[in-house]
């Protein structure tokens, strides 16, 4: 793995952990009802408007960076797969017997042209 891919993976993992933490820190929409019964002092840490806008913006920015790193990792994986394909890894090709048209026999079973000529495909017969 080259240094750029390693850097993107590290950033991706750090952003993922930060996103989980930020989502867990944020208050739900029903939490405002609790502030009416004496919990309003907790919002003074982030200013008079509370932590909602700051944490929402930070979560949005981290989510954008997360999607960019995800896309970058997909591009790296695609390039690595293309290099592996060019390296001479054998590819499974279909045989000519599978490409032959099937012909209905007198019993109503389908047989390919290769099987009718007496070739053994190595597969058991279906009953």
TrEMBL record:
InterPro entries: SecG. Residues 95-127 are annotated as: Disordered. It is a multi-pass membrane protein. The chain crosses the membrane at residues 54-76. Keywords: Cell membrane, Membrane, Protein transport, Translocation, Transmembrane, Transmembrane helix, Transport. It is found in: Cell membrane. Residues 102-121 have a biased composition (Low complexity). Involved in protein export. Participates in an early event of protein translocation. PANTHER family: PROTEIN-EXPORT MEMBRANE PROTEIN SECG (PTHR34182:SF1). Belongs to the SecG family. This is Protein-export membrane protein SecG. It comes from Marinobacter salinisoli. The lineage of its organism: Bacteria, Pseudomonadati, Pseudomonadota, Gammaproteobacteria, Pseudomonadales.
């Amino acid at each position: 793995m080259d240094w750029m891919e390693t850097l993107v993976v590290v950033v991706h993992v750090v952003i993922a952990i930060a996103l989980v933490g930020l989502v867990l820190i944020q208050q739900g929409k029903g939490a405002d009802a609790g502030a009416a019964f004496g919990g309003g002092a907790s919002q003074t840490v982030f200013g008079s408007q509370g932590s909602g806008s700051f944490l929402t913006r930070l979560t949005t920015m981290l989510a954008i960076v997360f999607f960019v790193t995800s896309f970058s990792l997909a591009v790296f994986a695609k390039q690595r797969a293309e290099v592996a394909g060019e390296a001479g890894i054998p590819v499974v090709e279909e045989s000519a017997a599978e490409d032959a048209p099937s012909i209905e026999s007198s019993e109503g079973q389908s047989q390919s042209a290769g099987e009718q000529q007496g070739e053994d495909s190595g597969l058991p017969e279906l009953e």
